[in-house]
């Protein structure tokens, strides 16, 4: 029956990881993986997560409700919108536990496909590769909007605004809440305000992908600025949240879809429909990761400890940005590397050409994505000198 099924290509990111694993050179460096690493190059269990994990009580293996752990959902909603959000006060929000950020995007896409008047979704060029795949599977029509300007290695703000203006009215616009993946380029707060003006004029609907809150700057409110600003401006929106990075819970698949609607009745109706989408997709979510997060978010002292963990991670990334930048410059870089300091979050969009990337890998055993994206977490005090040399060599 399935004799004619064609072999699909491997996932680009996982393919780089496999090539890294197969390399036997001791100097090899993995800058492709989208996960935090310590200065020793190892994964990090957040101390607050480890502490809570040891105290989880009454754990049986009963089903969670379709929409997940209610304490978790309330905590995640507050995290995205801010506890004092007008939308929460007016009881016009709902939040549903999801299979991490990817699961939230998938259910959000299906919801939009089923219920929104427009099937058009605007997606930045470039964006996280999975966005396009997810939206395509939900039968949405993807329309790219300009975002990254190669000449400045920064934001193409005029291009973005022009494309939002030119798009059909009532389109959904996918916005990276902070730490844009793969570019590390975010609008300023003033630019967010202008984006909101255009989106309001056009009746566009914001779909936020929030995968790096707190992980980017260490400050949870700063990293949620765009979401909270849009809600203050009276927008309805969907927010896809991931606990992979900011809680280090990558394989626990803890995420959330928080929705802001215009009325309490709409919030109740949307919740009921989201539950139907979940029920027919995977019935109900897993417990463990969400239980850890629920404990942390509902306890003031643990919350503070977690913020310290966030500062540890974001602080190390910022320090690696500075140190790698300085080392490349000190070794006689022939081009400007200030974008390494300006871009934010886990990734630097280096501007390295595919040929330079190829040389880094084949000659220097440095593994990164073909588009030149590097994960700053792969940089550490042991490999930084070697890496800076390699980058200077291939860009001479
Ligand atoms: N959105 C973006 C922009 C991401 O970078 C990621 C993680 N790579 C995700 C969503 C989803 O990750 P997860 O499913 O692990 O939460």
Describe this structure in words.
This protein is of the alpha/beta class and 396 residues long. The protein has two domains: 12-45 and 304-394, Alpha-Beta Complex (Aspartate Aminotransferase, domain 1); 70-298, Aspartate Aminotransferase, domain 2, CATH 3.40.640. It has 16 helices and 13 strands. The protein has helices at residues 12-22, 47-53, 70-81, 86-89, 100-115, 129-137, 157-166, 189-202, 220-223, 225-232, 264-281, 288-297, 300-330, 339-342, 354-364, 384-394, and strands at residues 29-30, 93-99, 120-125, 141-146, 148-149, 154-155, 172-176, 205-210, 237-242, 254-260, 347-349, 366-367, 373-375. A seven-stranded mixed beta sheet has the order 2-10-9-8-7-3-4, sandwiched between helices. The protein has a two-stranded parallel ribbon with strand order 1-12. A two-stranded antiparallel ribbon has the order 5-6. The mean pLDDT is 96. 4'-deoxy-4'-aminopyridoxal-5'-phosphate (PMP) binds next to helix 5. 4'-deoxy-4'-aminopyridoxal-5'-phosphate binds next to helix 5.
Question: Descriptors for this entry?
Answer:
396 residues; alpha/beta; Aspartate Aminotransferase, domain 1; Aspartate Aminotransferase, domain 2; two-stranded parallel sheet; 16 helices; 13 strands; globular; binds 4'-deoxy-4'-aminopyridoxal-5'-phosphate
């Amino acid at each position: 029956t399935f004799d004619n099924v064609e072999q699909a290509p491997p996932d680009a990111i996982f393919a780089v990881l496999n090539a890294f694993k197969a390399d036997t050179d001791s100097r090899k460096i993995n800058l492709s993986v989208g996960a935090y690493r310590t200065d020793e190059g190892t994964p990090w269990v957040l101390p607050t997560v480890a502490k809570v994990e040891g105290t989880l009580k009454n754990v049986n293996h009963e089903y969670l409700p379709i929409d997940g752990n209610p304490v978790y959902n309330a905590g995640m909603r507050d995290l995205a919108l801010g506890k004092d959000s007008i939308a929460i006060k007016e009881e016009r929000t709902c939040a549903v536990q999801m299979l991490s950020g990817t699961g939230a995007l998938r259910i959000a896409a299906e919801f939009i496909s089923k219920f929104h008047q427009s099937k058009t979704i605007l997606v930045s060029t470039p964006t996280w590769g999975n966005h396009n795949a997810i939206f395509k599977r939900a039968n949405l029509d993807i329309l790219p909007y300009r975002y990254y300007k190669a000449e400045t290695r920064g934001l193409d703000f005029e291009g973005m605004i022009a494309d939002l203006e030119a798009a059909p009215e009532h389109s959904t616009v996918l916005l990276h809440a902070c730490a844009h993946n793969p570019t590390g380029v975010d609008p300023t707060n003033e630019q967010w305000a202008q984006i909101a003006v255009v989106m309001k004029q056009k009746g566009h609907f914001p779909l936020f992908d929030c995968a790096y809150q707190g992980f980017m700057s260490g400050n949870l409110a700063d990293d949620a600025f765009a979401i909270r600003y849009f809600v203050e401006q009276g927008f309805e929106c969907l927010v896809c949240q991931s606990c992979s990075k900011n809680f280090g819970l990558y394989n626990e698949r803890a995420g959330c879809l928080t929705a802001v609607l215009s009325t309490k009745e709409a919030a109740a109706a949307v919740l009921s429909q989201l539950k139907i989408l979940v029920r027919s997709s995977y019935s109900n979510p897993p417990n463990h990761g969400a239980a850890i997060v629920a404990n942390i978010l509902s306890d003031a002292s643990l919350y503070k400890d977690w913020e310290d963990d966030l500062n540890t991670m974001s602080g190390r990334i910022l320090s690696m940005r500075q140190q790698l930048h300085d080392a490349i410059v000190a070794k006689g870089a022939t081009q400007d590397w200030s974008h390494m300091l300006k871009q934010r979050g886990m990734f630097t969009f280096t501007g390295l050409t595919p040929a330079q990337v190829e040389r880094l890998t084949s000659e220097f055993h440095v593994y990164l994505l073909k588009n030149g994206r590097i994960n700053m977490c792969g940089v550490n005090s042991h490999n930084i000198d070697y890496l800076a040399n390699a980058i200077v060599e291939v860009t001479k």
